[in-house]
Amino acid sequence: MKKIIKLLLLVLFIVIFYFGFTTYPKLELISGFSAKSIASGHFLDQRSKSLIEKTDNDIPLMDLASNTINEAGKFTTSSVYGLKERKAIYREGLGATLIDEDYDISKPYLLPKRIKIVNNLAFPYGNKEPKDTLFSNVDYSKLNKAIDDSFDKNGGKLKRTRAVVVLYKDKLIGEKYDTGFNKDSKILGWSMTKSITSSAFGVLVKQGKIDIYKPAPIAEWKNDDRKIITINDLLHMNSGLEWEENYSKICDATIMLFQSGDMAKVQREKPAQFKPNTHWNYSSGTTNLLSGILRSQFKTQQEYLDFWYSAVIDKIGMNSMIVEQDMAGTFVGSSYAWATARDWSKFGLLYLNKGKWNGEQIVDESWVKYSATPTNTSKGAYGAQFWLNAGGKFPDVPRDMFYCSGYQGQMVAIIPSLDMVIVRMGLKEEDQGFDFNGFLKVIIESVKK
Length: 449
Hints:
32% of the residues lie in helices and 16% in strands. By secondary structure, it is an alpha+beta fold. Strands 6-5-15-14-13-12 form a six-stranded antiparallel beta sheet, with helices on both faces. It has a four-stranded antiparallel beta sheet with strand order 1-2-3-4, covered by helices on one side. A hairpin with a 2-residue loop joins strand 10 (356-357) and strand 11 (360-361).
């Protein structure tokens, strides 16, 4: 019996040691992700805690988190076995913000002043329900089957699609939602937010207020090798700055999103590894640095907050969209825009129509072309905060497709040669089993040229 007890104690020791060595350093990231996810999903989209835990938080190690929602105080807390508790607060108009223990929740804060356009036009250019439009060259049976096949059946978890919206020639031709979701459900775009950030620069360029080919206006870089990095280099993820982006481990990206109070600062402090325009490296830190640069273009915080909405988001009627902030009040331009699938499709339509929205030029046509032109060293995979199919990532999809892409398989696909926008929101990426090439291929085939 003593030998058995000793053996059990040894096994217990090994388990505890292994947990401490492999998982303990991740606890703050686990509780931070969970608190932020539940605060946003619950207060922005009215999802229940159990639904968020079973769906949005259904990723490795997140089941270790214990979560609570304080309805009256509008905040959530999460911890792992009582350790590393994190808190996320919700503020109407700003969304959720993950905070640390030093954050003063009593301090006053500014809200974006929004003018949400309400008109009598049908979707996508207005807020009324779209009229039925039948195109003789669209095989609707094939289209609807392609859409249906992208969703799981009987509660499965193989595809995990939440929403699909298909626009063709400015008209809605296909739409479907998973159980519990509908046209009014706000869904996190994750890195699709990067394309929103880029569009804000596009408006400033159109207004003649910024030159993206000049060195980035960052004082800390003026006396070292980074002084030659331009905004253009940053937009193309081609700055040469050090950065690691790997969501399966503790890295620069996860530390920034779940531990940093000022996300624009993290990439700014990284050293140069290479000369600009020689090594493409995907970096969410770069996009948050760009958000910080946008802040420097305005005299006041209020002007900065208002600009994102007045220049692009509300300008094209994306009335559901909320871009969340970090503790420093900077928009998390890399990752935290929430909107309905329909509103995400409006953004795609803006770029499909070469920057024009219902007769008004929001960003110049040249900016759209710039956004969809391959970045040097990206092998045709990336433009200016947009992903590209120029390198043939999706072999059965036109090479002129460019797209917004986000964690867990968010996509706004823009296909100029077919006059089409395809939105897919979900919880599974291509390398996890969702066949984006096949999904896009069959939808495309349903439209005869």
